[in-house]
User: Fold these one by one.
Assistant:
Number 1:
Amino acid sequence: MYKRVMLAFLLLLGVVVPAPAQELQRAGRPEDVGLSSERLRRLSATIQRDIDQKEIPGVVVAIGRRGKVAYLEAIGFRDREASAPMPIDAIHRIASMTKPLTSVAVMMLVEEGRINLTDPVARHLPELKDVRVGVEKTDDARASQLVLELPLRPMTVHDLLRHTSGLTYGVFGKSLVKDQYRAANVMDRQQTNAEFVTKLARLPLHYHPGTTWEYSVSTDVLGRIVEVVSGLPLDRFLAERLTTPLGMRDTGFWIEQAGGHARLAEPQIDPPTGKRPAMPDVTRRPTWLSGGGGMVSTAPDYARFAQFLLDGGVLNGASLLSRKTVEYMAADHLTSAMRVNGFPIAAIDTRAENGGGFGLGFAVRVSLGRSAVSGSVGDFGWVGIWGTQFWVDPKEQLYVVMMLQTGSDSTRVRYWTLLRNLVYQAITD
């Protein structure tokens, strides 16, 4: 209901909104955009084999090239245990694929002159003004203790966008700072964004800002900055300024649409436990509007977002970012002096020695041969912990979106790599 009302409101204001009929244009055949139908069948066959072997329940994949959708297939089950087939418009929890949306929202405010990337975060969130850095040191008894130091420089908005803020996640690895994150329940879904930032203000940073890339709650802090600067809750800002103008009708922090619950994709039961992996309840509005991981979407919706990025911030008349801003976001913003605590996962490796880097909300490819996955220099994208993935390849005029729900670490990592290899082998010109 909210999105329908907002659509009418935007039309009254004269905001350009894609009409329902303005769907992404389909190619007549994959060959029309330089892809092989025969080679794309390898992708379908591989997915079907894994579904038949009960490795995964089902997948939706969208591939666009040269401005047209060349492949859009739903394979397998939306809910295996209910024998419910996977529809093209199945709604998936996209987890960290929320981050690019929040990052775009921040850059919209940058373009309006309401935020500068050089702004100290404390300019917008004063509660973070006196945050300290927790440095582990060993005493005479060789026991580790946490010593608090003043930051060498303030944390900036730029740091938040590129994950060099000094913040961390409490769930990856172990340290005395991460122990404090876990004890404080930093990822509590029952908190508001304001309460989340207040909680962070009582915790030390893991690193001095600007010295280290580490995946973190930085984008959640950006979500709060969007709220403070715009005066709107994060869900309203994203709906009014981004997802509605782009025609992303099923994208939000919970499923609002009538009948949408019946399109929610579910992971399959894990044989060793006999239970489904625990996933967030997205059937009602959450208390915590997590800008780093709280949204749901569909493959067609996220394909619109990917095409918007590929087209330089424009889609069907909705011009939301300048081409130069998108280019800037997709550039590598890490320096050789920074330590990079990257994931040892080829598809999302941000270490330069492995061909990767990081921009403003996305991982980016900086060299070709050092990576263990196919792609192009300059391609960029990200993944979600429940198995979703997207990337944009400007050189090939290509985007790819995959929607998958799985609780298996090995399965999602395999698919993040597998999909890239199966897409690029299908390119013929």
Number 2:
Amino acid sequence: METVLLDRTSEGIPVHFARDAVEADHILVVGRVKPHTRFVGEFQSGLMKMLLIGLGKHEGARIYHRAFEDFSFDHIVGSVGRRVIEKGRVLAGLGVVENAYDETALIRGVLPHEFEEQEKQLLTLAQGWLPRLPFDRADILLIDQIGKEISGSGLDTNVVGRKEHEHCAGPNEFPKVKRIIVRSLTEQAHGNATGLGLCEFCLTRAVKAMNSHSTWINVMTAGNPAAGMIPRTTIQTGRCSRSP
């Protein structure tokens, strides 16, 4: 997690860069390009974000997420990303786009000066290839598992309709789900329960699997403490779940 101060943006934001990356001769940036679970714009999750959040490690992520509150996500990603490309020995990038089944659908090699334009194109493809639920409205959505390897927010808000608000869909957002229930965390989440706070209910076993420390670090770094809150829990019995 150790970083060095690579530069500062015109806004005065320090550009943190992984120390082991600084010691490398060249850097190849690999990133999955997809709609971000919280932010909108021409840049969302992809190569440009990896220049900040990936190569900036925890300290960079903490600083940039605070900057997102004062400037647009696009603005900070572009401003910091350009500094990293200029100063950070970035040789090239590999943009990965997945289909609706989490399978690799496209891999594109990108030169540093192409990062911004190519990412916009790849994001358009990714938005069209997102999985979709087969309905526009639902009273209850039961989710077996959430986890960081599934989505940065535990569950993909672009799929379940929780990108604009924690507990309801925005006016132009679908599907519109009234209540979400989570049954458990994935093993690969290692107790990081980020995303649990976006749901109304969960089984007790999901809370028992939660690592409060790692979840706290994640949601506070991202500037979204609500994502780590514990919803109303239910106890799983033999045939159904009931409130304790």
Number 3:
Amino acid sequence: MGDQYQFAKDPNVDPTTLLRTPGTKTYHINSNNENFYSLPLSSSPEADLAQRQALIDQLLAANNNNPAAVQALQKAKASLPGGPK
């Protein structure tokens, strides 16, 4: 298992709802008055794997003109369980 971090502000996500999610951790930075949340990964390894593969595929499509990015992303995808070797 593990935690998942995302750096995006989603106006559709209510912080109080996040705080009610079991396993949620909160972090606060006083100097910038910023709040961060980490959520546990789902209990379904298959769903997690599919989500990670889809994210890598999106990043590959967005970076197809950057050979270094493509190489790093392909390496990351190959390192996933069941990924191409």
